[in-house]
Amino acid sequence: MTTADLPLAQLAAAIAAGEISAREALEACIARIEASDGEVNAFTGKSYARARDEAGAVDAMRARGETLPVLAGVPYAVKNLFDIEGEVTLAGSIVNRSDSPAKADAVLVRRLKAAGAVLVGSLNMDEYAYGFTTENTHYGATRNPHDVTRMSGGSSGGSGAAVAARQVPLALGSDTNGSIRVPASLCGVWGLKPTFGRLSRRGSYPFVHSIDHLGPLADSVEGLALSYDAMQGPDPLDPGCHALRVQPVAGRLKRGVRGLRIGLLGGWFDDNATPPAREAAAGVAKALGATGVAIWPDAEIGRAAAFVITASEGGSLHLAELRRRAAEFEPLSMDRFIAGALQPADWYLKAQRFRRIYRDRVNALFEHWDVLIAPATPVSAPLIGEEWLDINGTRHPSRPAMGLLTQPVSCAGCPVVSAPLWPQGTGGMPIGVQLIAAPWREDMALRAAHVLQEAGVATLTPALSRRDRE
Amino acid sequence: MTEQNVIDYVRAAAAMLDLPLDEAAVQRVATHLARTAAMARLIDRAGGLVPADEPAEVFRPAPFPAAGADE
What we know:
The structure holds 2 protein chains of 2 kinds. By secondary structure, chain A is of the alpha+beta class. Helices cover 39% and strands 16% of the residues of chain A. Chain A is globular, with a radius of gyration of 20 Å. Chain B is built from 2 helices and no strands. In chain B, helix 1 (3-16) packs across helix 2 (23-46). The mean pLDDT of chain B is 89. Chains A and B meet through helix 10, helix 11, helix 12 and helix 13 of A and helix 1 and helix 2 of B.
């Protein structure tokens, strides 16, 4: 067994037990990156010197007989919108190349470092996070490790692909409209979009202040939980961080789903899912003992509100550079940024006013349910460059359509785990299933995810899925 | 609202914001803006908003739970 075969928690345990040194684990990780990234194109920056220092520090702690922190020696990488001290934060752009290097690590990077994790580099993304495909014109498309002719999803496509290619067991991403869940779905890895306001965003390049979330993608549910716990904590300096204390989840994973009220989302989430996506969600519903079908209130309008808010805030954020350097922007998103900057104020204000009502309606739904199930994407990974998708006979532009099923959920701020499923009819490609809980109840979504993982219903590779074993 | 209305709006709003756009860009931006206009109409049609409904504050999906509430 190689370190690539060890899920994150087992790798951390092996390092803590002295079976593998942190430096050995790192060198194996670097070898995997060097062997695979020419094809996958997940990485835009490699911080191997720093990583060797961090791994060496872990090994030194162990040699001194000190207790190692929970993620000691675990290699990870971050979407390139996270500040890394001494490096320019690109956020997928070339415009930012002229920025000064970051003076400090992002808060979440600092917290992972404190937990012993080892940062190996930064990852490709859609420019300024405005996209669902990571077909980045400046840095090249990140290709899906399961079929390199296909999209990795986005905007955290490098994060999804790096975990799927076993380059790293853990990566950080951001999710405004689905940018953790879409690549987790298309690449077949675990993803967690926490409650809006749970994790500090300080030191990350913003996209839409009103909706931006940060979170992990990982090779296992334990990987999500351990890294999420390590990153929790209040941050009075981030006005969007509402958490007042840490609510650890890793110790709760094995509580199962007995007693939880679990439902399958119908309506919008069924209407906009292709048969393989429906099959994946139905399989999860069966495995978790879902007792009924629930209807998410105003899903289509919630998506519309997210769409309008995103366009307006994103366009406004980049207006100054659009005036001066539009030609340096990503061609796939530049026109959308400009259109957003031109939107009438009425659209934006009504969307924000609607969001307040929407939140109350969504929270009322969770008076009757604990975990709700829906596909994460309507389809499995399209071919790179695909312009149109057919979803149940309706033609959709492929790039925005990838967020049809994620946007209504993040607009409400609910926590979601994306679980990797491998349904029939996708040519062997994965589709993620969202496990959605009420605000601040990440623990419930993760408990359900753990049940799926232990049952072999949701797995990182199709070869290990229950269907293939039977 | 006609296609030409959207194009005219893009030209005027871009000029107001001092945003230089060539004719090809005006057409492309208008296509995107028309898509967003359809989204905005959905929100309008939803109704239910009364004058007292303020925009969301720095958005909080729900109050952070009191200690012990998550047990």
